Predict the 3D structure of the following.
Amino acid sequence: MTANSPQVAIGVRVFPESIAKLQAAGFTVRAHDSAQALQGADLVALAKGANSLLVSASSRVDAALLEQLPHLRMIANIGVGYNNIDVAAAQARGIQVSNTPDVLTETTADMAWALMFAAARRISESERWLREGHWQGIALDGWLGVDVHGSTLGIIGMGRIGSAIARRAQGFGMRVLYHNRTQLPATTAPNATWVEKHTLLQESDHVILVVPYSPQTHHLIGTSELALMKPTAVLVNIARGGVVDDVALAQALKSGQIGAAGLDVYENEPHIHAELLALPNAVLTPHIGSATKRTRLGMVNLAVDNLLDWHVGKIPRNTVS
Ligand code: DGY
């Protein structure tokens, strides 16, 4: 290691080829080799003296942590959402922050559909029952779910991923409603109609959440929003924990106020509200929205490219502000 060589700390296990790319560019790499992302003092210990940091959404990089890393100049987040990083605190210290948009759009849209289908057609619940040995034959009135084709889909957050979800709905003959802070031009959302949030919640058979987490979107779906939804409705959250009030959701699923939920993200993840874990009508996955080999490798490589841009004095291709 030379005094001026770029040093990168990687707070979660990544792919060997991504590490090799950084090393080939002259980086000294200190990589954590576990799927459980480093946090707090452990992350500080790894990153001490490093001028760049590669982290996933599971590592919290807040002002207190940044204060302990005075050499840091660049943070490359592996993920499009970056609410794990205090961007304002980083910028106040002259630290660049980047993320990985676009590369995961289609894969994450697929996951929203997978959760919608699994919840609507009771896939996880019926499979568990089958594996437990209960199946005696086809019951015509058993395991009845709700249709996806021909139904009304409501999308809250019509950005890149929301639009990719809406595009898929055309093939299933669905009516698509969306709610966004701003109404999009018809060319951007050709098969979708902007409506107020309460109209979307009242009229949709399936509601998919795709908004970034922020103080403004905290508990965007809580008791009063769930009360507007149909008793057969499916709620899908592939956005971020905290966008949904998990306690209120568990209550709504338990009381039959809504039909089912498909969740990939949670408040306080990886800890999941005990009542959600016990509910048969909740399909629960461990934040795997972007988890295909091609997409995860694409995300890590894009984060690496952002680091390489910074290293050669360019503005990283995906800075956030
Ligand atoms: C993202 O990119 O934001 C995904 O949720 C993975 O963290």
About this structure: The chain has two domains: 7-101+293-311, 105-284. The pocket of (2R)-2,3-dihydroxypropanoic acid is lined by residues 57, 79-81, 104, 289-290 (CB under 6 Å). Residues 227 and 257 are 7 Å apart (CA to CA).
